[in-house]
Structures are given as C-alpha cells and as structure tokens.
Design a protein that fits this description.
With 183 residues, the protein is an all-alpha fold. Helix 8 crosses helix 9. The protein starts with 9 loop residues before the first helix and ends in a 13-residue tail after the last helix.
C-alpha cells in the first residue's frame, strides 16, 4: 500500500550499545581489526582484543548487535569473538530458536526493557521490601547468575526465610509469609 509503513527488520531493533566512557575498541581500533591469524603478531593482537572485551561494560550488547548485523560485523573482533566464532554462534541460535532467531532475541530485549521501565514506576511494597531485606540479611547478597544455587541450597534458603519470618511475626515485626506467598 502506498504510504504505509512496514515494521523495521528485527535486526534494526537490536541497537548498538553505547557507554559514556570510551571502550578499548575505540581507544585501540588496530587490535580489533585483525581477522587473519596467519602471523603470530595477529594472533597476539586477537587474544589481547578478546581479553580487553572480557572487561568491557557493553560486551553483551555488543555481541547481540554483532550477531544480528552480520554484514556490518563480518570482520574483526566483536565482543571477544572472531568472524568464524560469530558464524558458529548464529548457527547455534538458528538451531535453538529457529531461522527467525533475531526476532526472538529482539522481542526478548523489548520485554526486558518494558519490565525495567515498569519496575521504575512500581516499587516494592513495604512488605516485599522487608522480605528482600530479611533474605539478604539471612543469606547474604545474591550470587552472580553464573553461580546457580542447587535445589538443596534453594530449599535451605526457603527454610531460613520462613524460620526468620516466623520469629519476626512472634516479635510483631510484620505479618506472616508462607512458602506460597508470591512476591
């Protein structure tokens, strides 16, 4: 139809992440432009670029962008990966999520963005904040996502939380919480 607009391609929905500070690839672009590993110097530069990427604050977003934009990121090191590694990752994503994996990833990013936005406008209730504080006091800070709790550790934490909640109820601190209470 004339004058109608179609939705942008999914790859355009995955935008390049930006940070206020200059990243290593902006400070030393020569390290990140190698693709051929035929010389020891090129291999050393690629390894150094990968190490620098591992500490970058936007590495996750950079990888998503590089995977979703294969023509723009066809050469060099992006998010600690070479072109060959990115091709392999794209194939794995297609195997796991289907040929339209970019749309699946873009939709997921949109949902996360909406949840973060909603969380800004819907803070925890007083009751929920007390539970979070109690959990943090009993179990310490949450471990990073890469350290998954075993089912036994999860059950231990639930037991500790329920025990502490019962003690708090007896002392009159706040109302009781059961294992089925939704936060």
């Amino acid at each position: 139809m004339p004058g109608s607009r179609s939705a942008p391609p999914a790859s355009d929905r995955i935008t390049f992440p930006f940070t206020a500070s200059r990243t290593a690839c902006q400070r030393q672009p020569g390290l990140f432009s190698h693709e051929a590993t035929s010389t020891p110097a090129a291999r050393a530069d690629i390894e150094q670029a990968k190490r620098l990427c591992s500490g970058c604050p936007i590495v996750t977003g950079c990888l998503k962008w590089a995977l979703a934009h294969p023509t723009q990121a066809r050469l060099g090191v992006w998010a600690g990966t070479t072109a060959r590694q990115r091709t392999h990752l794209r194939q794995r994503l297609a195997d796991r999520l289907g040929t339209d994996w970019v749309t699946v990833v873009a939709d997921h990013e949109d949902r996360l963005r909406e949840q973060r936005q909603a969380a800004r406008h819907a803070p925890l209730t007083v009751h929920e904040a007390r539970i979070v504080r109690l959990d943090r006091d009993l179990n310490g800070p949450m471990p990073p996502a890469r350290w998954r709790l075993t089912p036994g550790e999860q059950q231990r934490n639930v037991h500790r939380l329920l025990t502490a909640t019962r003690k708090a109820v007896r002392s009159g601190e706040h109302r009781p919480v059961t294992a089925t209470t939704r936060l």
